[in-house]
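quick one if you have a minute, typing this from the bus. theres a chain ive been looking at and ive put its sequence and its fold in C-alpha coordinate form underneath. please have a look and point out which stretches look like helix strand or loop to you. anything you notice is useful, everything is just below.

***
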Amino acid sequence: MEELKARIDSLKEQDPIKMQDLERKYGLLKFELLEAKKAVELQEITFADVKGEWIKDNSEENLAVMREEEQNLKIAKLNYSAAVEKMDIMKTVVFLLS
Protein backbone atom coordinates (compact mmCIF):
# COMPACT_ATOMS: atom_id res chain seq x y z
CA MET A 1 0.00 0.00 0.00
CA GLU A 2 2.96 2.31 0.58
CA GLU A 3 4.04 2.01 -3.07
CA LEU A 4 0.49 2.81 -4.14
CA LYS A 5 0.44 5.89 -1.90
CA ALA A 6 3.81 7.01 -3.33
CA ARG A 7 2.50 6.69 -6.91
CA ILE A 8 -0.63 8.66 -6.03
CA ASP A 9 1.54 11.39 -4.53
CA SER A 10 3.68 11.42 -7.68
CA LEU A 11 0.60 11.71 -9.89
CA LYS A 12 -0.79 14.39 -7.59
CA GLU A 13 2.22 16.57 -8.37
CA GLN A 14 1.50 16.23 -12.10
CA ASP A 15 -2.23 16.97 -11.93
CA PRO A 16 -3.29 17.96 -8.41
CA ILE A 17 -6.97 18.55 -9.14
CA LYS A 18 -7.69 15.16 -10.73
CA MET A 19 -5.58 13.32 -8.20
CA GLN A 20 -7.37 14.78 -5.17
CA ASP A 21 -10.36 12.57 -5.94
CA LEU A 22 -8.12 9.55 -6.47
CA GLU A 23 -6.36 10.20 -3.16
CA ARG A 24 -9.72 10.54 -1.39
CA LYS A 25 -10.90 7.25 -2.87
CA TYR A 26 -7.66 5.57 -1.83
CA GLY A 27 -8.21 6.77 1.73
CA LEU A 28 -11.77 5.42 1.73
CA LEU A 29 -10.67 2.07 0.33
CA LYS A 30 -7.87 1.79 2.87
CA PHE A 31 -10.35 2.49 5.67
CA GLU A 32 -12.83 -0.03 4.21
CA LEU A 33 -10.10 -2.67 3.99
CA LEU A 34 -9.02 -2.14 7.59
CA GLU A 35 -12.62 -2.19 8.84
CA ALA A 36 -13.36 -5.39 6.91
CA LYS A 37 -10.26 -7.06 8.35
CA LYS A 38 -11.26 -5.99 11.85
CA ALA A 39 -14.79 -7.34 11.29
CA VAL A 40 -13.41 -10.73 10.25
CA GLU A 41 -11.20 -10.88 13.32
CA LEU A 42 -14.09 -10.00 15.64
CA GLN A 43 -16.40 -12.48 13.93
CA GLU A 44 -13.77 -15.23 14.26
CA ILE A 45 -13.64 -14.59 18.00
CA THR A 46 -17.44 -14.60 18.25
CA PHE A 47 -17.68 -17.83 16.27
CA ALA A 48 -15.02 -19.48 18.45
CA ASP A 49 -16.91 -18.49 21.60
CA VAL A 50 -20.22 -19.79 20.26
CA LYS A 51 -18.59 -23.01 19.07
CA GLY A 52 -17.10 -23.48 22.53
CA GLU A 53 -20.56 -23.12 24.06
CA TRP A 54 -21.96 -25.67 21.63
CA ILE A 55 -19.17 -28.14 22.47
CA LYS A 56 -20.00 -27.78 26.19
CA ASP A 57 -23.72 -28.19 25.63
CA ASN A 58 -24.79 -29.88 22.40
CA SER A 59 -28.22 -28.28 22.44
CA GLU A 60 -30.16 -27.48 19.28
CA GLU A 61 -30.32 -23.84 20.33
CA ASN A 62 -26.52 -23.59 20.59
CA LEU A 63 -26.17 -25.40 17.26
CA ALA A 64 -28.49 -22.88 15.59
CA VAL A 65 -26.56 -19.96 17.08
CA MET A 66 -23.27 -21.52 15.98
CA ARG A 67 -24.52 -21.95 12.41
CA GLU A 68 -25.73 -18.36 12.34
CA GLU A 69 -22.36 -17.08 13.53
CA GLU A 70 -20.62 -19.31 10.99
CA GLN A 71 -22.68 -17.64 8.25
CA ASN A 72 -21.82 -14.22 9.67
CA LEU A 73 -18.14 -15.17 9.53
CA LYS A 74 -18.49 -16.21 5.88
CA ILE A 75 -20.16 -12.88 5.08
CA ALA A 76 -17.39 -10.97 6.87
CA LYS A 77 -14.77 -12.87 4.89
CA LEU A 78 -16.60 -12.12 1.63
CA ASN A 79 -16.72 -8.42 2.54
CA TYR A 80 -12.98 -8.50 3.24
CA SER A 81 -12.32 -10.22 -0.10
CA ALA A 82 -14.38 -7.55 -1.86
CA ALA A 83 -12.37 -4.80 -0.14
CA VAL A 84 -9.12 -6.46 -1.23
CA GLU A 85 -10.40 -6.65 -4.81
CA LYS A 86 -11.33 -2.95 -4.76
CA MET A 87 -7.84 -2.09 -3.53
CA ASP A 88 -6.33 -4.22 -6.30
CA ILE A 89 -8.43 -2.35 -8.86
CA MET A 90 -7.23 0.94 -7.38
CA LYS A 91 -3.61 -0.24 -7.70
CA THR A 92 -4.20 -1.18 -11.33
CA VAL A 93 -5.73 2.21 -12.12
CA VAL A 94 -2.90 4.09 -10.46
CA PHE A 95 -0.23 2.01 -12.18
CA LEU A 96 -1.93 2.57 -15.53
CA LEU A 97 -2.03 6.30 -14.92
CA SER A 98 1.63 6.50 -13.90
The chain has a mean pLDDT of 89. The longest helix spans residues 16-56. The CA atoms of residues 38 and 80 lie 9 Å apart.
